[in-house]
Amino acid sequence: MKNRDYTPCFVNYVAIAFLPTLFLIGVVSGYLGVIGLKVELHSLTIISLIYTIFLFFIKHNANYVVCKMRNENIALQKSLRKAIYDNSLTIGDSTKSTIVIEDFINDYYKSFRNDNFAVVATSLFPMLGILGTFTAIAISMPDFSIDDMGSLDKQISILLSGIGTAFYASIFGIFLSIVWIYFEKRGLSKFDGDKLHLESLYKEYIWSDSELKKHEHMQYNLRDERLVTLLKETFSLDFIEKLNDRHMENFKIVMGETNRNFTNISTHMRLVLEELKETMKSVNSAENALEANDRIERNIQKFIDVTDRLQKSLDRFESNRYRL
Hints:
- A hairpin with a 2-residue loop joins β1 and β2 (94-97).
- The model has no long low-confidence stretch (mean pLDDT 76).
- The protein is mainly alpha-helical.
- It has helices at residues 9-32, 41-57, 62-71, 73-86, 101-110, 115-140, 149-201, 209-234, 237-284, 289-323, and strands spanning 88-91, 94-97.
- α2 (41-57) packs parallel to α7, α3 runs parallel beside α7 and α9 runs antiparallel to α10 (289-323).
- It has a two-stranded antiparallel ribbon with strand order 1-2.
- The protein has ten helices and two strands; from the N terminus they run ααααββαααααα.
- The longest helix is centred in the middle third of the chain and has 53 residues, at 149-201.
- The protein folds into two domains: 3-226; 236-323.
């Protein structure tokens, strides 16, 4: 914050309330007859009530809040430095913060006032003035239930006089709105200046949007390069050749074992057929029929065994083929 603009906050409060206070003093002087301004008691009461509400709202005016922020300059910068440190990010050989100073200062500013009061104040005071005007007219409304014209003229004069003083409330409400807008805009202008001052003061410690975007693009490019390198290593020709050689070696082993099984099966089948032929000759010659029957049973059992072995070899061949 700028120390040369430092003023006690009480001075800011008095500056905002100065002109409305003069207006109220003029209304009181008119009621007391000090000046030639006729003011009724109900109008004075309503204006005093609106003035009291305005005094309550002053602490939420931007001009007053900026003064409070400047008084907390040391605490503000201490909090800002801590936030910069907590949000630090190292990129390459540089370490800066990712914090947005504008957002930080805006949040800090909102802790000093209620924005809802500041927003409604501009339209609230004219509405209070209009409400006060109609209230004053209603209070000063005379009783027209009279017979003679003289009394009626007197009551009409009282009504017109009351209406004239009642409009002071509306005038005062509009006047307060103008005063509020002026000091609100003045305070916001100071706030923007202080914010720019802090942003320029800590600019070298903050990563800019362009720097962060550049780093983000660099990370994307680096990730793409790593992916391409990984794919090249994964699908290299040497790797594919080794994979093919391994499969071919496994295939040769499976085929060799399968051929040996088929050779053994063929040999056993030839032996079984020869024995069957001999058995049939023995049966035909009616020699040793019992022995022939035994041999037939043994040969049939051998044939069944050979068939089972053949089926197992076929199953192994199918399983090896699917693994390849």
